[in-house]
């Protein structure tokens, strides 16, 4: 079967045989009479907005590196989100406070719906409706980015006039729960318009709207539950928006009812996808290094595609030589043994970590599909009366490389690495990038149901067992929960609001971490669970270098200026290579960093101070280049 698929928005235009469209006036908000005449022209407009979606970059970076700002992966430099002093207020150009895509989408939505209302477009035209549905989905996606970054944000549904009074009023930040409700409404509208099967591979389909809805609803539900009563949630006097919204009440009637509303939405949306796409891909690793279309893989709901000579990325070029974004020891320790037991459990069969090749034996196959195990064997063989040592290297991580080619922890990421040599060339990698998968919907359902009811139903257990079977792990869930000792887990996800969660809930969080490792979702999870409260003098660690594996290297390859030394720890500690490191003593998360500061220039534009219509986020100043007030009471 032949597939037509979208490569990238801007470049897709150039690849179409539509010279008449390309020769028309530039698409801006002043010439709408010269386009928007048919479904094809609607598609071209929406194409340019697909860049809202995540991707892998032409240079280093992309989804495979996003988790370096978490406890999953580690770069060779410290992340200023996790320590005091270096994170500061910025101007709007250096921030994520950007509404340009939303403005374009509002223009498109209003224009198309106006044409439907006036009869220019038929209300029953499936393709007109589909591209309108794509716009609603993309607006929801961009608003979700703003919600995660800033919490309360202005909700805009129209293109605003250049009028200072109107702009000032519209800059009022909507309470975050109502922003989340707005996003869900957009996704419901998208689902009602989108085709069940996308018209081109790589385009948004109906299930994508439900999948994203389950993600957003779970995010907001758990954020509101675990940050309840703090300055980060509406409905109390500590919330900075209280002065702007003096009569605020939760639409569901109470804070807990609002949480339950979002949990119910997450459960329902996740189930729609799971029932429509009941099959998981048998080959987990192939999902992340395929050069073929994933259109026939039921599990992949939405992905980005590339083509050599048109648009490519460099993911495998960096990952095959260190990558600069290795997994942490904490992440590796999270993966269960194939028998379903944690590594510390009695009779787990865990072989220790002195050589990572052995460390990975008998483990969850998602671990060996995500990390290249290192180590060597020395075979002593008797030859003509003399013993001969024959050394066999399994793999030796690039600890001695620098920058983005360095093996920062020794646990080199291979989840996104293509085995094809032709893909390991900078600017030539064309492996697809999955964005939404059924597996995540399984996890969303499981977590939301457990949060809502304190137990799991048969459907949740069915989903969980399917994930475990694909990973080659015993699907006796009860055995895992009984063997789980949250006090022995090396995982920030054990905590919410300073308290340990139940073994059942933690086991769901652990499954989520393992399934979605290095897919850019971990920081969102740690924030919504309020797990970062427990990041105190936290040292990201790598593999055990100094018991055995140092023998694989020449002395200069692992000298003091290259890696942390054995007098610090037998485990690599990237933050302790140099005593001058800004985070040498580890990460201690500053609570104001749960949300980003509103750019100071925005207060000047709307003629307001941080205590006026546009309020600043908790602990952040209204001056340029200012750090947060770390004594601010965020609790």
Question: How would you characterize the overall build of this protein?
Answer:
A hairpin with a 2-residue loop joins strand 7 and strand 8 (499-500). Helix 8 (206-226) runs antiparallel to helix 9 (255-276) and helix 8 (206-226) packs parallel to helix 18. The protein is built from 19 helices and 8 strands. The protein is globular, with a radius of gyration of 25 Å. Strands 1-3 form a two-stranded antiparallel ribbon. With 635 residues, it is mainly alpha-helical.
Q: What's this entry about, in short?
A:
With 635 residues, this protein is mainly alpha-helical. It contains 19 helices and eight strands.
Keywords summarizing the entry:
635 residues; mainly alpha; two-stranded antiparallel ribbon; 19 helices; 8 strands; globular
Secondary-structure blueprint:
Layout: H1 9-15, H2 19-22, H3 39-47, E1 73-74, H4 100-118, H5 126-150, H6 164-170, H7 176-193, H8 206-226, H9 255-276, E2 300-304, H10 315-319, E3 326-327, H11 329-334, H12 356-359, H13 365-368, E4 375-383, E5 386-395, E6 433-437, H14 438-453, H15 458-470, H16 477-483, E7 495-496, E8 499-500, H17 503-515, H18 522-528, H19 600-605
Antiparallel strand pairs: 1-3, 2-6, 4-5, 7-8
